[in-house]
């Protein structure tokens, strides 16, 4: 969503350290944020966007209600100012001109911001806040997690479909779209796969969901009959942060996975389009490379992205294969599935080349089996592994996130249950390890140099670590319920970084103490892959706004 903007003309001269005495850092713009209800408002996000630029810088007000943009973050130019504070919006924004900062007596431009009560509180709620607000059992609410991947659940709550409308129109139509869809860019599932979902059995499965959804929307009332619950604004350490958001060229771009190379260049996969993206964070310039199609009649889009020896590897989803991009030549090498294992259900969401130097082999998941393929790069020979094949029927199992240890043994997250699986690289034998929490739905994570697998327990709302050598688990609760963490990565200091698919909070958790800091992102978003740049001090967190067509850098100040 867009927030009210305050246009400001900033004729600023960036003050360099040599021109300023060794005192407090020079600010380009500062001011007090207040409202009729609060004389000083802590935890208000204040954003500045230069006219004609795709880069937005955001700071957060401290306990004194003041915000401050460092001089080296806002150069000369015209800026628009926006805020994010749940329950509030800018009160009567107006254009003003700010005088220049002049050395050796630099003075920050000053602008106090007055906020008024939000006219539409519901429009500000994250998915997690909606899930906390609506009545229903945990099982009923869990059904909505199938929706947050494509759009906000606010669309459901504002609808006026009755149970029959959901049953005969909405749910069947939603089921016809692939997971790479967005409301502005829907993609139909292949006809062969769509046939699997037809029939009276599927209608019966929809019925309970349809009846529930019709009780929480506006089908029988003009206003919701339940209170809208919101999370508190950031406080304390959570206000000590600077955000930089880079808008991408088109709203259809969904940056699912974001990674930063050693040269500081940001690479991202487009979830719904056949493009690999490159972002130069110094200039905000975005370059896109078109990935060759393997199945022209199938939906486009990519998920996993990995950087190995400077090359970019991609999981090509329903295109049926993986790809490698040589950054020097800017050429793709394609690895399509062989015809004998390539079918309408083939889906390579994940690719794992990180330990391919051990045996020359690259792993990939295969959602449709469900199982795993492995390709030998020298011969292009494929192997198929079906770890669930001999398990009792009637139990849903799946291979989602995959990570290789130092010997290229594969560990995978069974997203449909509560298991971490292992495939021995030499023997091909399978092993399973049950997480301490049932129905945890392990999703994605990171294999560290000590062969410890860090991962999220999506439905359990936890972070976890599996020591692959000791074969032991450790778990940590997320600080806020209903976050549903998708991915986690440890930084060089041992702290864990994650974010949830259902809310807009980046979580920084100390695994030794369990203490967590939650940084609120400048806009509502849908978080997937998370990444840490350990070359900066403090470390820098990166994430794609999968529904907001932007990439966000989070810089803690401590």
Structure description:
- The protein has 7 helices and 38 strands.
- It has 558 residues and is mainly beta.
- The strands form 8 sheets. The chain has a 9-stranded mixed sheet, with no helix packed on it. Strands 2, 5, 7, 9 and 10 form a 5-stranded mixed sheet that branches. Strands 12-13-14-15 form a 4-stranded antiparallel sheet, with no helix packed on it.
- Strand 26 and strand 27 (430-434) form a beta hairpin.
- The two termini are 30 Å apart.
- The model is unreliable at 1-23 (pLDDT under 50).
Helix and strand topology:
Blueprint: E1 5-10, E2 27-35, E3 45-50, E4 55-60, E5 66-70, E6 77-84, E7 88-90, E8 96-98, E9 109-110, E10 113-117, H1 127-133, H2 138-142, H3 154-157, H4 163-175, H5 191-194, H6 200-216, E11 241-247, E12 255-260, E13 266-270, E14 275-280, E15 285-290, E16 305-308, E17 311-315, E18 321-326, E19 331-336, E20 351-352, H7 356-359, E21 361-366, E22 371-376, E23 381-385, E24 402-404, E25 410-414, E26 419-423, E27 430-434, E28 442-447, E29 452-457, E30 462-467, E31 472-477, E32 485-490, E33 496-500, E34 505-509, E35 516-520, E36 530-533, E37 540-545, E38 550-556
Parallel strand pairs: 1-8, 2-9, 2-10
Antiparallel strand pairs: 1-6, 2-5, 3-4, 3-6, 4-11, 7-10, 11-38, 12-13, 13-14, 14-15, 16-17, 17-18, 18-19, 20-21, 21-22, 22-23, 24-25, 25-26, 26-27, 28-29, 29-30, 30-31, 32-33, 33-34, 34-35, 36-37, 37-38
Helix pairs in contact: 4-6
